[in-house]
């Protein structure tokens, strides 16, 4: 069974950083583009960032709200996707999910991020 397992969330002060991880299993990892989506309190799922397969030669993409602050990366050997989040804002709070699609239809259980002022 294919699985996605996010970790690395927590409570952080405004301006702080967190590095989220998504360990995967059951996927041909290197063939996939990978996505991070998030859901704030009372909001729908929001695409945050995506990274293409290594061979595609495409640059990672970011939502305007996180551009310049977040960095997505992948380790195909470890079958893991990362999201480094810097300069966190209160509006970044929510549940973060890695997914195989930009709308999060196929996603993990999530990891919670709380940014406190």
Description:
By secondary structure, the protein is mainly β. The chain contains no helices and 10 strands. The chain has a 6-stranded mixed beta sheet, with no helix packed on it. A 4-stranded antiparallel beta sheet has the order 1-3-8-7, with no helix packed on it. Strand 4 and strand 5 form a beta hairpin. The N and C termini lie far apart (40 Å). The mean pLDDT is 97.
- Return the string of H and E elements: EEEEEEEEEE
What topology, given as strand order, has the largest sheet?
Answer: 2-10-9-4-5-6
Average pLDDT for all residues? 97
Strand fraction equals: over 45%
How many DSSP helices?
0
* Share of helix, binned: under 10%
Q: Mind summarizing the main beta sheet?
A: 6 strands, mixed
Unreliable stretches: none
> What general form does the structure show?
globular
Q: Name the structural class.
A: mainly beta
Write the layout of secondary structure elements.
Elements (H helix, E strand, L loop, with lengths): L2 E5 L2 E4 L4 E8 L8 E6 L5 E7 L9 E2 L7 E6 L4 E6 L8 E6 L11 E6 L1
Parallel strand pairs: 2-10
Antiparallel strand pairs: 1-3, 3-8, 4-5, 4-9, 5-6, 7-8, 9-10
